[in-house]
């Protein structure tokens, strides 16, 4: 028996080893996993190139993107746990939630292997070799950036250590955060020139790196480096290496904002020369002639959900959205009330609904024409509201006279939900709408899941999706966008405002985004409707405007968590409770009572992930982030 156990164990270990090799590399003929074989010919080197791509974080995937439910933008059914536990303050240095330390360094290691060996490949044209090298340098920069954004100062792995390295060489230390950003920017500068301006063959190359992507990432990297979390952050003054090297420069540098503004403008110019532009809904064919109201909503929604539309700078082809759309959809067509294929598991809290502007394009607590104190009172929709709210439906006053992005991004009790096979907006009574009270078709109290706050997510759902039966949900898939042109425009306005203060150039790029969203300019909106009409004329006021504009425009796109952190505003926002409506009620007067779902807490230590205890034990030269 002992003999059989030993033989079985050996076989199991052997199978595990060859399976791991095949899964990890899968680049070598005859299952001989050696680096030399990986670079003997172009076809094998291309497999290694795609291996370097394979470590990209899966943006928009609930199990691999902390920015979806790790903050306060979307709340999840409690049973799911995972990143929701991070939002609840349950992060730990023992098995940190969302820990990417190992996976990103594995990706960096493979990028270094590629760069060290690609010159050996004989059957390649030099222009293609240079392109591949640039793609891998970009990926190496991106993986380092993901680590810096999460952990702060990190060890920079510029080259792989040789096998002969001694124990002291292996135990690397963290590099100062300014050195980290400089190295990332250097890699992107090296990568950009040899990258194509556009993808020539989308069917085979969509998702591969282009020059606009590289320069746009550099813009985001430098804006991040210039932001308060990394630029003069005195809270991190005591974070030092064992030899006393300070890892944060605690002195603010305006030059960082100057460099960021220059990088943003360069990226914008290259993107626009490549034909990238803000998306506006204007199909070659449509079944019905739509009103401007619905066209504006579709311009907002389709800028995210229309595959490879004109605004997409970079989308992750490894992170398609079919499953995500099923998780967030909550249509429950009355023909299929027994359906469970759409789940409605992610719900925007009340404070996110309140974040959007009024129809006049200013915050709801600043609009002198909007009844902020009466926002929770009841109001019945009239004919003028019929494309936003079901005519005759009684709902909260909060849902009336809001900006188009509010209606394009959110579903709510009584709200019109354009789509589900109903496209003729000349017949508003035929359009699908949500009913969110207890045991209504989109409410609590039925089999399966539904909203837990009273709000549904609409933005990430393609308007052409259709529920065909209780178990058939036809989804129009699209790769999850990592960066859109509106993101880059707002980064430029932010950097320029911090560098030079308010100016027509700052306003220009915010106003382009607002125009697509159906709003007036910053100057006209604040001058005519705000209780603080000169807010946009000073740097602090414009900063607040730009921040809110980013949070609205990029809502639910995995941006809010990172923006709040780099601005050092998480401690303010993530210490507010998560609220919703009273979902167990059947009447409007009872349903529209505010309930607290969870009291969030966020401390200074939470701005950065803890380094896992296992990594700290293996390398005593690493210092732990403060507070952990």
From TrEMBL:
Residues 344-628 form the RagB/SusD domain. One of its GO terms (cellular component) is cell outer membrane. It is found in: Cell outer membrane. Keywords: Cell outer membrane, Membrane, Signal. Residues 97-220 form the SusD-like N-terminal domain. InterPro entries: SusD-like_N, SusD_RagB_dom, TPR-like_helical_dom_sf. The keyword DNA-binding does not apply. The keyword Signal applies. Transmembrane segments: none annotated. Belongs to the SusD family. This is Starch-binding associating with outer membrane. It comes from Mucilaginibacter pineti. The lineage of its organism: Bacteria, Pseudomonadati, Bacteroidota, Sphingobacteriia, Sphingobacteriales.
């Amino acid at each position: 028996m002992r003999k059989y156990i030993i033989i079985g164990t050996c076989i199991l270990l052997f199978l595990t080893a060859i399976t791991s090799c095949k899964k990890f590399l899968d680049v070598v003929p005859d299952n001989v996993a050696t680096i030399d074989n990986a670079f003997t010919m172009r076809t094998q080197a291309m497999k290694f190139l795609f291996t370097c791509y394979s470590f990209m974080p899966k943006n928009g995937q609930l199990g691999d993107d902390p920015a979806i439910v790790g903050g306060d933008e979307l709340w999840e059914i409690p049973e799911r746990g995972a990143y929701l536990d991070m939002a609840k303050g349950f992060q730990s240095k023992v098995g940190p939630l969302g820990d990417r330390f190992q996976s990103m360094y594995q990706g960096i290691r493979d990028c270094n292997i590629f760069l060290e060996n690609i010159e050996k490949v004989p059957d390649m044209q030099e222009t293609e070799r240079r392109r591949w090298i640039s793609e891998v340098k970009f990926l190496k920069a991106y993986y380092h950036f993901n680590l810096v954004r999460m952990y702060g100062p990190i060890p920079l792995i510029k080259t792989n250590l040789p096998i002969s390295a001694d124990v002291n060489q292996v135990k690397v230390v963290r590099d100062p955060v300014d050195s980290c950003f400089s190295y990332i920017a250097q890699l992107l500068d090296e990568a950009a020139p040899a990258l194509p301006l556009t993808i020539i063959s989308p069917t085979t190359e969509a998702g591969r790196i282009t020059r606009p992507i590289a320069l746009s990432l550099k813009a985001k990297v430098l804006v991040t480096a210039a932001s308060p979390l990394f630029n003069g952050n005195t809270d991190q003054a005591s974070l030092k290496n064992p030899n006393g090297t300070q890892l944060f420069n605690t002195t603010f540098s305006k030059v960082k904002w100057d460099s960021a503004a220059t990088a943003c403008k360069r990226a914008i110019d290259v993107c626009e020369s490549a034909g990238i532009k803000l998306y506006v809904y204007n199909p070659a064919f449509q079944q019905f002639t739509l009103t401007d109201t619905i066209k504006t909503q579709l311009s907002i929604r389709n800028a995210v959900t229309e595959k490879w539309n004109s605004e997409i700078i970079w989308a992750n082809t490894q992170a398609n959205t079919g499953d995500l759309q099923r998780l967030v959809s909550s249509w429950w067509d009355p023909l299929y009330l027994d359906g469970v294929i759409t789940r409605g598991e992610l719900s925007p809290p009340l404070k996110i609904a309140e974040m959007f502007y009024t129809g006049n394009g200013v915050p709801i607590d600043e609009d002198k024409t909007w009844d902020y104190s009466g926002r929770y009172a009841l109001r019945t929709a009239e004919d003028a509201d019929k494309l936003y709210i079901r005519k005759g439906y009684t709902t909260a006053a909060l849902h009336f006279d809001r900006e188009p992005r509010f209606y394009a991004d959110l579903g709510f009790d009584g709200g019109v939900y354009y789509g589900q096979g109903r496209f003729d907006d000349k017949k508003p009574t035929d359009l699908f709408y949500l009913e969110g009270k207890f045991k209504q078709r989109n409410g609590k109290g039925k089999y399966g899941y539904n909203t837990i706050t009273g709000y549904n997510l609409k933005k990430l759902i393609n308007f052409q999706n259709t529920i065909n039966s209780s178990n058939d949900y036809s989804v129009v898939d699209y790769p999850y966008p990592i960066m859109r042109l509106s993101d880059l425009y707002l980064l430029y306005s932010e950097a320029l405002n911090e560098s030079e203060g308010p100016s027509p150039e700052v306003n220009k790029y915010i106003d382009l985004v607002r125009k697509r969203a159906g709003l007036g300019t910053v100057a006209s909106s604040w001058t005519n409707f705000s209780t603080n009409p000169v807010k946009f004329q000073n740097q602090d006021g414009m900063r607040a405007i730009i921040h809110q504009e980013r949070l609205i425009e990029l809502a639910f796109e995995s941006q809010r968590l990172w923006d709040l952190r780099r601005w050092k505003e998480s401690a303010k926002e993530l210490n507010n409770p998560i609220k919703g409506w009273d979902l167990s009620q059947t009447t409007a007067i009872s349903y529209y009572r505010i309930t607290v779902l969870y009291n969030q807490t966020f401390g200074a230590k939470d701005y950065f992930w803890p380094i896992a205890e296992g990594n700290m034990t293996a390398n005593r030269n690493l210092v732990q982030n403060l507070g952990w």
